[in-house]
């Protein structure tokens, strides 16, 4: 028997994202961004736009002369929690963790820069989900592949909100780096 895999398709609609079920038709989530005020990212369930799945607030700090989002706060089901960066060295921005009420300590880990691959891992080291960049036509950003049997809507919310937060943080950091290099005459 093939291992369990639940697919969520992510589409970039310009200033928002739309997440569709594995049938690539049924809306699951809407994602909006507000770069001027917190929260900077809001994820709502498509079935009930008043039902917030979660939010993320990116708190900029200066590192190596450019602004990064090394501090992030997520709100999941009315619980605000830090989305912490693993402290293993000066270039450790590829791993962030939080304490999930249902799954314990979990973390997102990115592949090499620009790979478009993220892995969501539980405290036992087992893979829970992955994000794969599948952007070909400029519309479809990628997919989340959830590898664990359905654990309920709240756990799916945690995977989606934290994964999108990791993607947005990576996008923000790369944009800040490019701007700083350009300003310094290197771009």
Secondary structure: elements and pairs:
Layout: E1 6-12, E2 16-20, E3 27-33, E4 41-45, E5 48-63, E6 66-76, E7 79-82, E8 84-85, E9 95-100, E10 104-110, E11 117-121, E12 127-133, E13 140-146, H1 153-183
Task: Characterise this structure.
- The chain has one helix and 13 strands; from the N terminus they run E-E-E-E-E-E-E-E-E-E-E-E-E-H.
- A 13-stranded antiparallel sheet has the order 7-6-5-4-3-2-1-13-12-11-10-9-8, with helices on one face.
- The protein is globular, with a radius of gyration of 16 Å.
- With 187 residues, the chain is of the alpha+beta class.
- The protein starts with 5 loop residues before the first strand and ends with a helix.
Concise structural overview:
The chain has one helix spanning about 155-185, and strands at about 5-10, 15-20, 25-35, 40-45, 50-65, 65-75, 80, 85, 95-100, 105-110, 115-120, 125-135, 140-145. It is globular. By secondary structure, the protein is of the alpha+beta class.
């Amino acid at each position: 028997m093939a291992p369990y895999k639940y697919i969520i398709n992510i589409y970039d609609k310009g200033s928002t994202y739309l997440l569709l079920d594995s049938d690539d038709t049924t809306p699951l989530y809407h994602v909006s961004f507000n770069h001027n005020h917190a929260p900077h990212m809001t994820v709502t369930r498509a079935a009930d736009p008043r039902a917030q799945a979660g939010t993320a607030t990116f708190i900029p700090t200066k590192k190596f002369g450019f602004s990064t989002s090394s501090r992030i706060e997520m709100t999941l089901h009315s619980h605000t929690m830090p989305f912490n960066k693993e402290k293993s060295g000066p270039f450790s921005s590829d791993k962030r963790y939080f304490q999930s009420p249902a799954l314990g300590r979990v973390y997102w880990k990115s592949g090499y820069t620009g790979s478009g691959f993220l892995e969501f891992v539980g405290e036992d080291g087992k893979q829970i989900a992955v994000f794969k960049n599948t952007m070909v036509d400029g519309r479809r950003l990628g997919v989340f592949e959830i590898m664990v049997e359905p654990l309920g809507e709240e756990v799916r919310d945690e995977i989606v909100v934290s994964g999108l937060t990791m993607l947005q943080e990576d996008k923000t950091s790369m944009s800040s780096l490019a701007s700083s290099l350009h300003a310094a005459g290197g771009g």
